[in-house]
Amino acid sequence: MWQALFGDPVRAFGVVSLILLLALAIAPAKEHFSQWHGYQRKYLALIRDRGDAISLHRRFEPGIHQIWLPELGVVDRCTTCHLGLKEASLSDVTQQPFRKHPVVPHSLDAFGCVICHGGQGQATTVAEAHHSERAGEDPILPTRYIESGCGQCHQNALPGTPQLNLGRTMLTRYGCVHCHAITRPDGSKVVATDHPPSLAHIADKTTREWIFSWLKDPQAYAASTTMPNYKLSDADASAISAYLVSNSSPKDGDTVAADAKPAANADPAAGPSLYGESFCASCHAVQNAAGNLVGGDLGPELTRIGNKAKPEWLAAWLENPRVYDSATPMPHYRFTPSQITTLVGFLEAKSDSDYGSGVHLDAASPQQIAHGRRLIVELGCAACHEINGVQKPENFAPDLSTIGSKPLAQIVFLAGMDHSLPSYIAAKIRQPRAFGSSVKMPQFTLTAAQTDALTTALLALTARGRSMPDNLRVAAIPETNYQPAGPAGKLITELACFSCHRFNGRGGEMAPDLSWEGSSVQRQWLTDFLHNPNTLRPSLIRRMPRFNLSDGDNKELTDYLLAVYQSPAIDPDLASVATNSAEVVEHGRQLFYSKYDCQACHIVDAKADKGYIGPTLTQVGSRLTPGWIYAWLKNPQALRPGTTEPNQNLDDEDARALTAFLISLKGSGVRGAK
Amino acid sequence: MITRLTAHATFRDSAAVTLLSLALLAGCKHSAPPSAGLKATALGTALVESSGGHQVGATGTALKDPLVVQVNNDDQGAAVPGALIEFHGPAGVGFDPSAVLTDSSGQATTSITFGSSAGRYQIEATTPGKTKSVSLVIIETALDYQGRVGAILADQYCNRCHDPESSPERVSNYDNLEVKPHPFTEGNTLNKMSDADLTSIILHGGPALNRSALMPPYGNTLSSSDVKALIAYMRAVSDPPYQPPGTVYARK
Fold first, then answer.
1. Mind telling me how many Å the CA of A649 is from chain B's nearest CA?
2. What is the value of pTM for the model shown?
3. What fold, for B46-143?
């Protein structure tokens, strides 16, 4: 064969030329048969028969495409195959890789692809770009966690990322950050917003038997609790309860003599009606007969409170919760002794005779107590709860600041598990102990949507997010540490106003922001409202409770709210509008009913109008200041961002006339009639 | 050298054969019915939806409520327990489980996870049936980012009037209005309105198109991208579905 091919110099030359030619053909052939080239041919076939084929074809460029953004570290060749991303007319194409990209706030050319989607941008084959599992490389992010991409730069809550926002709220509300430290790219720490109770005086509050049952299965006591299940054995739960009770120190005034049994002649409806009037349900939930939770989630669920709380502790707590826990979000209601007796009787009756009935614990031995302490240290109970004799551990669990970039090579996957970071994180949240019996992380009770949200929030904590240029970072808005001063400040703390209301960037979201309340309302209305808070919106379930404020306390609070919480944008001199002529008021009425159709949302005439959306305005002239009404009409969102009422761009004359009409609505004269 | 080459070729061939058979196996595995291992104990003749249809969710995520369908026996109209139901959908959609036997009340439940493309998903539930297989088509809608932003804005500014459904937390204002607003799902009316009409009614209120002033102007409250998102949401949830007008080109 050798002789046949190369025996003759001419023939040898021919054969060598042929080999050379073939060798030269390898490079173009390799390109011709490459995967991306095939996709570009398919794309051309796809657009060939479309109506706008010519313009689509004009925008098509053959060859490798690349988005190169050196300051972001992006070298993305995804657009080599994903050719229809920017073609609006391809919105009906469902075949990948030619689908149009959904509308998002950022330009694809400015950010590339991998920043949000993960995967390997430099690769030009599907396998390498989407599914690479090599060390340091991560497969493409499943769409269900896509919001994590936004969270790398946006540390604040975005309106379009509900899943990420929920996940971030859960990181702080479910106590994750008590054990796991999380530092944001700007160096600020994620801080917990829950309030795990101190266990330093636990024996005043409850029994060792209850603690045992609770530790065994917290959700059996209260389905809505965020306390996780540590899957403790009977012996371990018994030992921990023994330690907690034996190391609990009594505290002055956190128990008072109380009788859980209501007096024989007591009105059986008094308890439920006081519970309702005090709007306990704004914060506390109770399971109804159908098994649904009714009420808020700011405070603990009270379905079986009678099984837990000792009556003498509950009475002291209702009298002044700040004696037992100085930082509690619960207000000091100033209940009268008879009200306390009624409420204690009502709450203690909320018990389940089956709960914990089989629990009989022998007296604790010193060995048991010592074992309990060992377990408390080992499980990190003191990371959340204050416990006598046990220090709060530092860095108890792994730091999660860059968990979203954890290399796959460092992960031990379970058998049958998808080898990707999202599936590892989700599985770890769902069933931590499946990863080995030595794993200390407890079992949380979460819905599938909550697990997805937490996974999304954790996946957002990437190394890339930390190396982003500063101008792209949007910082989280931190809670201020605003604290009102003086006797009124003390009252605001005692009444726990911050639990529901926001003042100057600190406080809850349940009730209106009061930072400008002083510009908004009239003195007499505020005084009356603090005495007896009649709701402005009867359809709301969560409402302001009634506190038994003394006249002095009421005046102190009213003075402070009116003097301090003033908006610089409100013109106090507009008060003169109140003395407007009848014609102007009538003109305002016509504008209200005809030009602007305000009755679509508001009620002015309780008989004729039906609007449910805005507050009832029958007595608005005795409630709001003219300056506030005028400024509100001119631009509602400037005073309360996100409020439903649109900015109608009123001219000054219309706004004045409407203000004059509204301020003339003084109501029937009987204050609080509605 | 030659023998080596041959050996190499043989090795490659055998590798190719192995790959081919693996691919075949994989193909077989893929085409195996999801009902493998489930044995129906009864057959029904009709399929009805109990709950979970017509939901709106986000691409890539699971729907809030599971889909529940019921197998009935046509003769007496009674529920049939133990009948096999298989769920199918467009590429990318996931079912947990994708095949299930009906429970004692004749119902089968599955949770649906959308794929990554937005739009209307036709979900098909099938049961073998006594004579021929019976199927039921259920529509679910997946929103992309823009549609989701629109849904959030609609909830904040529009639904109190435009959605006639009330919840205990939020009472609808629909019944109180003299001129009834159009629910966003009302495709028969809204599909006839162009994007430009919808934009101007949102920006300038009802009077812009000679309609009721009960619809106030949102032009100073919403940004132009907000309005686009709202319209995208209305188009996505419209029933019957919205067909974009599209540009008319001469066919080649």
1. 7
2. 0.86
3. Immunoglobulin-like (2.60.40)
